[in-house]
């Protein structure tokens, strides 16, 4: 029984380490694909919406491969808006009485 628990713990630890290694590889890739401001924004997206983050990473990498240059903050915003289905910017207007 104790051996089974120890094996389960080791297996879980290995899975967590593998996940951390994969995440580090994704972050390293994003560092080469995005400029600093865009990278910071992408890390905020990761915290706010992990699903959007994963799809945006794939989109950024594919666009980087086509363009052959780093993507900026404006380009990242366009990618994120298209991923979410919002192609126009949100505007806030104040009506004064």
Explained architecture:
- This protein has 4 helices and no strands.
- With about 100 residues, it is mainly α.
- The protein has a single domain, classed as PDCD5, DNA-binding domain (Helicase, Ruva Protein, domain 3).
- The mean pLDDT is about 90.
Characteristic terms for this protein:
97 residues, 4 helices, mainly alpha
Number of helices: 4
Report the β-strand fraction as a percent range: under 5%
> Quick one: how many beta strands?
0
CATH architecture: Orthogonal Bundle
CATH fold field value: Helicase, Ruva Protein, domain 3
Level of helix content?
A: over 70%
Rounded average pLDDT? 90
Low-confidence stretches: none
CATH class: Mainly Alpha
The best one-word shape is: elongated
Which secondary structure elements does this structure contain, and how are they paired or packed?
Elements: H1 2-33, H2 36-48, H3 50-67, H4 73-84
Helix pairs in contact: 1-3, 2-3, 2-4, 3-4
In short:
This protein has 97 residues and is an all-alpha fold.
């Amino acid at each position: 029984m104790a051996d089974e628990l120890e094996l389960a713990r080791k297996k879980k630890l290995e899975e967590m380490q593998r996940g951390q290694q994969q995440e580090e590889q994704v972050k390293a890739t994003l560092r080469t694909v995005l400029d600093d401001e865009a990278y910071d924004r992408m890390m905020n997206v990761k915290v706010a919406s992990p699903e959007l983050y994963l799809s945006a990473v794939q989109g950024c990498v594919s666009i980087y491969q086509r363009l052959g240059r780093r993507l900026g903050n404006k380009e990242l915003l366009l990618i994120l808006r298209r991923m979410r289905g919002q192609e126009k910017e949100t505007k806030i207007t104040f009506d004064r009485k």
